[in-house]
Amino acid sequence: MTITSFSQDLKINSRELVDTIHSTADMFGAKGVWGSESTQTGVCRLALSDLDKQVKDWFIVETKKLGCTIKIDECGNIFATYPGKYNDALPTGMGSHLDTQPTGGRYDGIYGVLSGLQVLRTLKENNITPNFPITLVDWCNEEGARFAMSLMASSVWAGIKTKEEIYALKDIYDNETTVLQELKRIGYLGETKCSYKENPLKCHFEIHIEQGPVLEEYEKKIGVLTGAQAYNWLNIKIEGMSQHTGTTPMEFRRDALLATAKIISGINEVAKKYKGLASVGKLSLLPDVVNVIPGEVDFVLDIRHQNDEGLSHIRKGCQEVIEEACLNKAGNGVKLPYSIIDPYPYPATHFDKSLINIIDDSAVAIVGEELKHKMYSGAGHDSCATNLVIPTAMIFVPSRDGISHNPKEHTEPEDLELGFRVLLESILRYDNARLS
Amino acid sequence: MTITSFSQDLKINSRELVDTIHSTADMFGAKGVWGSESTQTGVCRLALSDLDKQVKDWFIVETKKLGCTIKIDECGNIFATYPGKYNDALPTGMGSHLDTQPTGGRYDGIYGVLSGLQVLRTLKENNITPNFPITLVDWCNEEGARFAMSLMASSVWAGIKTKEEIYALKDIYDNETTVLQELKRIGYLGETKCSYKENPLKCHFEIHIEQGPVLEEYEKKIGVLTGAQAYNWLNIKIEGMSQHTGTTPMEFRRDALLATAKIISGINEVAKKYKGLASVGKLSLLPDVVNVIPGEVDFVLDIRHQNDEGLSHIRKGCQEVIEEACLNKAGNGVKLPYSIIDPYPYPATHFDKSLINIIDDSAVAIVGEELKHKMYSGAGHDSCATNLVIPTAMIFVPSRDGISHNPKEHTEPEDLELGFRVLLESILRYDNARLS
Ligand SMILES: NC(=O)NCCC(=O)O
Ligand SMILES: NC(=O)NCCC(=O)O
């Protein structure tokens, strides 16, 4: 079966997308050199930092050039709307994020926003007025790296977090600066309500790098996503007793770090048993001194599974591991108190069937049946938030060696271009389908 | 057998010592409230901080009041010398340190310096001129908490470290500020050579809280120390691969923190096997982000044993544990590179026999045979450094519940007073013995 393409007769400059990815990386936060080429660095552009402000300013300038109108909402999201023929109808949405990890790459999130920009540039260059307006969104703080809630502002928009909750989040690096302070400081505390009800979209398309090894393994070019893993970030505190490392016999200790070490080993087994994931990426000791047994350890346990049931098995297994470790059998057997806060559970995502079909058809039109692959996402994305309230679907392109959240994150330019063309095709196909 | 006491006819105001401990704690860094009494806090007075400068200034004022002459050496050590009859002879030394842990108590080190001060105050009040001058030393940065080398300036004085080495040490909290900068900034980069050759002492007495559970367990009041444990602080770096926690299957990982967790569990077993100690108190992740598998973990492994042979067994056992963990069997089996630097091995200390006897006799004179106990020290002390070059010995008093390096560190006032009286007796007894 061949599928007609809605974009095949357009003048398409997909190379411009790749150039924009690298020129913006160079201007706004290039960091972490891993090769001799000038493009071989990552990007460090933490949410609501000066660099995030600069790239947001740039984004507004570029979309305005194309005739877009701009709305900034109360949570720092930017909505750039390209006009259509029926401007009273809800806009077709597409988006991703321009913030990065501290040791991030050039593509995570950025690729999605700039591909959306390239869609609008292509419409402009070809003098196309779509049937319906198209809104490109830069969602604020998707990573949760600096303010530890991923999909932050898209979650408020989708109504599962309140703006008050996110305003109060503190910078993990100084434990002081809040989201609200930073939104004000960089001038992105907008007036538009952050709500799918008051600032609605018809749907949400997102293209993203896979950040995992699957497409590469199967030698596929395009991932057509059916959903994303359920995940949960548990804030855990283990309380021991800070004592002198040189005078306290091993058997008398209440070592919060030893308990944590047993937990980290244990959750690894739990994740494997249930074919999911469990990781500790963030951890701190109190005090943090060579010759003091840590009296307190705080860490975040990141657990994930393809389905909600699997996630709750892992959650339960981890709880047991924690209980067991806190019995402090290696020490004096005085139980270590612990606490677990899970402010941020995300259920498994199942994308919209008709949007999945649009993307599937578009992928077939651009790369053919052989090179596309139905799959689900390991990572959370803003689309997991939007999917709670509007039809949503996603496209993936391969990540070299499955590496992400690392400056070495890489996708071949040809693959970036192919992915963009699938997005363009999907947007036009959807715009057309809305007519009937 | 009863032993005559050299101090029994003196007017002794040992309560003044306890008062000075609390008044200086209140003035210079009280922190970490643990009870409702005003004395129920710890002290945070990091080496070469503003508070350390203030307490050093105070120390100089107080010793000058007694007629002491002051020398400040190139490493921030302060030598306050109380004159004797034979001032050409080498001074009898006593000392300890006024710096603390970030979560330190009121006694660790401080008790030793202030007991020395109380010895001098007692001589003054009783109009006693000793045969030989007596030098009270405040050794700079014993803890190694802020600049991670314990017994820092006493080690330079003893010739096993150079001043250049310690000048270059960096503040672990900002990884920038050096010892040299801070010595200059607080005005304690003195001109006296930091050397036992050029600024010698005849011997070194030190009184200290035990910081462990032994005296309390045996219901003894005075520890007569025969030596101190061998110890070593190994700086270890494990290199993994920073990757996305949500997209990287457990089997594909190179998780530097998982390897570290296995090491922390493993060294615990090694320490128990060889009846020594092994602890990790300081640890950091790179990056340190919820959804990134740590690509690098740096930590310090603190190992100790009563004798040098035991320490080298533990060292070897830990090396094997590290090797094994770095095979990364739980991940993709790609070996994780690691490095171990051990800049700071301290061999087991064996104090001077004749000084031990002086202290033993003094303890018998003050508390009787029944209440003193021969033992060795779990922690390192400035006396471990001085013992390398001059006759040295130490006195311990009990620590409640063996707790130290914790604001809750506590010794009963009566026990503090008894310990001081043993120090006073030892100094007078030694001063007398030197005549013959
Ligand atoms: N795509 C991505 O890295 N999102 C951040 C949230 C997550 O950790 O899954
Ligand atoms: N006494 C004391 O805490 N000294 C610091 C060095 C060590 O850790 O043993």
UniProtKB/TrEMBL annotation, chains A, B:
<dbReference type="GO" id="GO:0016813">
    <property type="term" value="F:hydrolase activity, acting on carbon-nitrogen (but not peptide) bonds, in linear amidines"/>
</dbReference>
<dbReference type="InterPro" id="IPR010158">
    <property type="entry name" value="Amidase_Cbmase"/>
</dbReference>
<dbReference type="Pfam" id="PF01546">
    <property type="entry name" value="Peptidase_M20"/>
</dbReference>
<keyword id="KW-0378">Hydrolase</keyword>
<comment type="similarity">
    <text>Belongs to the peptidase M20A family.</text>
</comment>
<dbReference type="InterPro" id="IPR002933">
    <property type="entry name" value="Peptidase_M20"/>
</dbReference>
<dbReference type="InterPro" id="IPR036264">
    <property type="entry name" value="Bact_exopeptidase_dim_dom"/>
</dbReference>
<protein>
    <recommendedName>
        <fullName>Peptidase M20 dimerisation domain-containing protein</fullName>
    </recommendedName>
</protein>
